[in-house]
Specification:
Number of strands: 5
Shape: globular
Number of domains: 1
Strand content: 5-15%
CATH class: Alpha Beta
CATH topology: Rossmann fold
Length: 214
């Protein structure tokens, strides 16, 4: 979920404008994504590949040059950033800044779905692709925990998908918000909040054990 270059690289318009608005405000999430989240997602992706399970990437980006298709919060941020001299804070889908961070780039056979708001299900293609793949449970990773990850997880649950949160494969803007979001999501995800090391060691057996309680 949204582990993209413009979030992760300090020289992007998104990051440079954010630093002018909230100096140091992205320091925590920057360290966590680099040191914890990206390595954890890498481990999980390898485990999914070994099991023959699909990986689906979600990207937050625009398709309209004026970003009118973005959620109003993101659209306003993009406009304010442009006015301050930081154009394309939220990049277009075709912009290299919208790409997934190096090291986690989609592989052959992976699916990428672009979204313009908090929930990946705002793009109907996501639900259709998951049904086509025969998916019945989503293992949630990415950022931000309390925003796009949580909103997508709740929408997934409404659509009948089981949800498993991987705590160390997600990040928020501070540790308290991250932990609070996972706690609040327990009722929606059935309490399935796990760690990468526990899940990846025996992916299929442990997913089946979690879902057997539902």
């Amino acid at each position: 979920m949204d582990v993209q270059r413009y979030y992760a690289e300090a020289v992007s318009s998104f990051r440079r404008y954010s630093e002018t608005r909230w100096p140091g405000g992205l320091d925590y999430i920057d360290r966590r994504v680099r040191d914890v989240v990206v390595p954890a997602i890498g481990v999980l992706r390898d485990a999914f590949d070994a099991a023959g399970w699909p990986t689906v990437y979600l990207r937050l980006c625009g398709s309209a040059p004026d970003r009118r298709d973005l959620h109003r919060f993101f659209r306003r941020f993009n406009e304010e950033a442009a006015d301050a001299g930081f154009p394309d804070a939220y990049p277009l889908a075709s912009d290299p800044w919208a790409e997934v961070v190096p090291g986690l780039s989609p592989r052959a056979g992976d699916t990428t779905v672009d979204k313009t708001g908090f929930s990946g299900f705002g793009n109907p293609a996501l639900d259709g692709e998951l049904r086509r793949l025969g998916v019945n449970a989503l293992v949630m990773t990415g950022l931000a925990t309390s925003q796009c990850v949580d909103t997508t997880a709740r929408d997934a649950s409404e659509r009948g998908f089981a949800v498993v949160h991987v705590a160390d494969a997600q990040a928020d803007y501070d540790e308290d918000t991250h932990a609070s979001a996972l706690y609040a999501s327990r009722g929606v995800c059935g309490g399935h909040v796990v760690a990468t090391g526990w899940l990846a060691v025996d992916l299929q057996a442990r997913i089946e054990a979690l879902l057997s309680d539902e």
